[in-house]
Amino acid sequence: MMTLQQRKDAFVQLGQGLRALALHDEWPGYSSALTREEFEGLRELLDTARARNGWFTPGSVKQALAAWGDNLSTDKLGTWLSAYDLPGTNPAPATVALICAGNIPLVGFHDLLSVLITGNKALVKLSTDDDLLIPAVIRLLMRIEPGFAGSVNYASGVLQDFDAVIATGSTNTARYFREYFGAWPHIIRHGRTSVAILTGDESAEELAGLGHDIFDYFGLGCRSVSKIYVPEKYDLNTFFGGIYPFHNVINHNKYANNYDYNKAVWLLNQEELLDNGFILLKEEHRLASPTASLYYSRYNDRRELDRQLDQASASVQCVVARNRVPFGQAQAPGLADYADGADTIDFLLTIRKT
Predict the structure, then answer these.
(1) pLDDT digit string (tens) for 207-238?
(2) CB under 8 Å to 73, separation ≥6 — which residues?
(3) Which of 59, 144, 168, 268 could form a disulfide with 189 if both were Cys (CB 3.0 to 4.6 A apart)?
(4) CA distances from 225 to 100, 194, 267, 318 (A)
(5) How far apart are CA 255 and CA 233, in angstroms?
(6) Helix segments in the chain, DSSP class H
(7) Are residues 176 and 203 in the same domain?
């Protein structure tokens, strides 16, 4: 039976390996916590993942690996877990069913980390869009710490023999999850999006950061900014200029297909839109814009806008602004930045094996 410290040490070593994969094209040595064979095998698997899912470009996968490599440090794990009264060992681990999304690389890894770090077991139902990366990372974790053997199993059909559920999906699938899993302790997450508030005096660096919030992972994540709020007299050319460094996104085939489709539909419907050649801007009260487009609204009263966003909090993952999530940080959540605001560790500490 592993202790909490053993589990933490294993994830720290895993973080070293993920950083090496993100930062190096060739094996950097044993300090990476990887053998040469492991490093080269994982690099090949990243290429396979890209072939399976066209959104998983080398840049996107490396960004996800680097983010997890950064979070899985001794200091960050320690700070995160210090907020909880975690026992040194877990003599009666529960089995937690995890239904993972696949919109961005390793999007389900935080749930898996939470289950394993608390000494529980995971029954994982992977998305077909991301069914290679998480198993590869878990194999590496089990090589680092053999005590994790048997702690992770994968389900391809109907989920059976579990004690609790953490499921992530769209708003429609979340309704199904709540109905189907209502009898078990559960966290059910639904579709959310993120927004940004501009004041009109943002620096070039802040606008470039906002570009990352919009375009990283091609805008497919719940932390991707899909709408901006700008002052009544704001010149949107300033915004376009600030995000121009991201113009090469249009060279990605799947992104360009979405851009062309949305543009054609809106033009056929005689909708007013702004087009800079790589993203479409449309004035719209709704929050979630289609891929390769961005909604915007103008505001006069910042306090009233904050109030409206607070009322819409069930649909908003994060708000990027000077007094909220800093520009450029939406896609870099910390370990305590829980999806949908549901504290996963606190939830796991309340369940018991049945």
Answers:
(1) 999 999 999 999 999 999 999 999 999 999 99
(2) 12, 15
(3) 168
(4) 21, 5, 23, 9
(5) 31
(6) 4-23, 36-52, 58-71, 74-81, 109-117, 133-144, 171-180, 204-215, 236-243, 253-268, 302-311, 344-348
(7) no
Give every CB contact of residue 52 below 8 A, 6+ residues apart in sequence. 131, 132
Q: What are the tens digits of pLDDT across the range 153-183?
A: 999 888 999 999 999 988 788 888 888 898 9
Strand partners, 188: 167
Distances 150 to 3, 37, 120, 336, 345 between C-alpha atoms, Å: 16, 24, 11, 27, 21
Rg value, the chain, Cα: 21
Q: Does 354 score more than 70 pLDDT?
A: no
Confidence band, pLDDT 50/70/90 cuts, at residue 94: very high
For residue 146, the enclosing domain spans: 4-191
User: Of 29, 60, 32, whose CA–CA distance to 46 is shortest?
Assistant: 60
Residue 294 near residue 273, CB atoms below 8 Å: no
Q: Is position 336 within any domain?
A: no
286: Cβ contacts below 8 Å, ≥ 6 apart: 227, 295
Q: For residue 272, give the CATH number of its domain.
A: 3.40.309.10
Rounded CA-CA distance 217/214 in Å is 9
Give the Cα separation of 308 and 130 in Å (integer): 35
Alpha-carbon distances, residue 60 vs 36, 104, 192 (angstroms): 23, 8, 20
* Cβ–Cβ < 8 Å for 319, 309: yes
Within 8 A by CB and 6+ apart from 152, the residues are: 112, 116, 121, 122, 124, 138, 142
The number of folded domains in the chain is 2
Per-residue tokens: 220 = 């497919």
pLDDT over 70 at 66, yes or no: yes
